[in-house]
């Protein structure tokens, strides 16, 4: 098993068997073996820094799989590392494309250098990455080789980015990277001559500040970038041992950090899942309370609609009866009037009053009461007075300011501009 880059399933086992056909072609069996390995390894196969023969064998197998129709339906083969670097082959699902992840893997594989010889060559070209003196550079490069070899034995890799040389070396453990620095320790040596511009000592009891210079010590030091509580983060030459003997301890410490980070990630995932479950439970409980409030509000809103509509129709009927009685009284007054002209002038008022009574009377115009709809679904504004802080549009709270309503004796269904003040005690249906 070869450890791979982040997000890539990897599989070792060496290259496919050498083909017996023409050099530029591969037999179908070789392509079938590649497809099987891809399916067994979650859709990806990675070969770390293969030699030219192995790389060519894989290229022929990829070509043969495409030519003989061995790629599963709905999938495509893609690969990176055709000429250099790690070779990564992937079965690409057309139904669920993830170009972002593939681009990250592809560009990361091209950018990263993990071959130990290539690493040493890069460090020779950029000696500033290893903060050591020229005399210690050979030991530092040998230490890089030892670290790379130990990491490889334990299934990891020592690598460096081509584009981000300033970040230096890192050890990759699974999907995680841990920066590692190789440097030379510095000794602090006091200066013998006082710094320029400072006065000399005048009195025996007077102490002048002492300046120090940093000079290379000849001791190598391996250092991890981030310090963890009660964990060692650096190893250096001592009078008895050299840091090369601590290479295995360095890699083990990185493995410990990777395990701790994995556990922390699992714990974070568990807490996030628990939070999601609690949030869904809270939202479900809140929705249940809102639905109960909405059910109660609909019942009350329908009752309000029934009471208001029926009471308004009753008011309109009572007013129509009063208007007709008033018109009858006006007719009697006109009949008893001695002045014919005055009696004639009363007739238009009597006719207008009877016409108004007919328009207001729900028994003469029952369609108005029927159109009000006994089972009419309440509107959001009808529900608001009965919901408290709940919104009629969803399970969330909103501020509602009750409106002060001044109701007349007749609602909009029967009003028609008519106003008539209520007399006497309130009716029973209004109490």
Describe this structure in words.
The protein is 44% helix and 15% strand. The protein is elongated, with a radius of gyration of 46 Å. The longest helix is centred in the last third of the chain and has 90 residues, at 247-336. Helix 1 packs across helix 2 (52-67), helix 5 packs across helix 6 and helix 6 packs antiparallel against helix 7 (340-360). The strands form 3 sheets. Strands 4-5-6-7-8-9 form a 6-stranded antiparallel beta sheet. Residues 1-15, 17-23 and 406-411 have low confidence and may be disordered. With 431 residues, the protein is an alpha+beta fold. It is built from 9 helices and 11 strands.
How many H/I helices? 9
Report how far apart the termini are.
86 Å
Portion in strands: 15-25%
Alpha-carbon Rg, integer? 46 Å
Shape verdict? elongated
Q: If you average the pLDDT, what whole number results?
A: 79
Helix and strand run: HEHEEHEHHEEEEEHHHHEE
Number of strands: 11
């Amino acid at each position: 098993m070869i450890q791979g880059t982040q997000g890539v399933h990897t599989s070792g086992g060496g290259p496919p068997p050498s083909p017996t056909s023409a050099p530029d072609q591969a037999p179908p069996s070789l392509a079938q073996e590649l497809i099987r390995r891809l399916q067994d390894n979650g859709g990806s196969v990675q070969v770390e820094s293969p030699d030219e023969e192995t790389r060519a064998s894989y290229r022929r197998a990829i070509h043969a799989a495409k030519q003989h129709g061995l790629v599963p339906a709905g999938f495509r083969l893609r690969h990176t590392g055709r000429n250099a670097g790690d070779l990564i082959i992937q079965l690409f699902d057309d139904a669920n494309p993830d170009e972002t992840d593939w681009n990250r893997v592809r560009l990361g594989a091209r950018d990263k250098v993990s071959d130990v010889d290539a690493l040493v060559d890069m460090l020779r070209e950029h000696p500033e990455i290893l903060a050591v003196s020229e005399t210690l550079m050979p030991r530092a490069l040998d230490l890089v080789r030892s670290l790379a070899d130990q990491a490889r034995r334990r299934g990891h890799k020592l690598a460096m980015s081509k584009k981000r040389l300033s970040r230096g070396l890192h050890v990759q453990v699974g999907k995680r990277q841990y920066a590692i620095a190789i440097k030379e320790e510095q000794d602090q040596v006091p200066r013998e001559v006082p710094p320029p511009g400072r006065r000399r000592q005048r009195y025996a009891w007077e102490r002048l500040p002492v300046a120090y210079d940093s000079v290379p010590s000849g001791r190598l030091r391996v250092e991890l970038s981030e310090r963890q509580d009660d964990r060692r983060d650096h190893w250096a030459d001592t009078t008895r041992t050299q840091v090369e003997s601590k290479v295995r301890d360095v890699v083990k410490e990185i493995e410990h950090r990777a395990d701790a980070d994995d556990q922390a990630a699992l714990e974070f995932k568990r807490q996030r899942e628990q939070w999601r479950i609690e949030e869904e439970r809270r939202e479900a409980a809140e929705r249940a309370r809102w639905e109960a409030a909405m059910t109660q509000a609909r019942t009350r809103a329908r009752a309000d609609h029934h009471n208001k509509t029926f009471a308004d129709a009753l008011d309109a009927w009572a007013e129509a009866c009063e208007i007709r009685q008033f018109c009858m009284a006006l007719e009697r007054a006109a009949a008893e009037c001695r002045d014919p002209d005055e009696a004639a002038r009363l007739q238009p008022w009597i006719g207008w009053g009877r016409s108004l009574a007919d328009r207001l009377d729900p028994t003469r115009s029952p369609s108005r009461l029927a159109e009000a709809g006994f089972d009419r679904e309440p509107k959001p504004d009808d529900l608001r007075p009965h919901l408290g802080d709940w919104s009629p549009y969803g399970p969330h709270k909103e501020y509602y300011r009750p409106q002060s309503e001044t109701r007349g004796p007749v609602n909009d269904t029967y009003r028609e501009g008519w106003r008539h003040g209520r007399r006497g005690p309130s009716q029973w249906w209004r109490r």
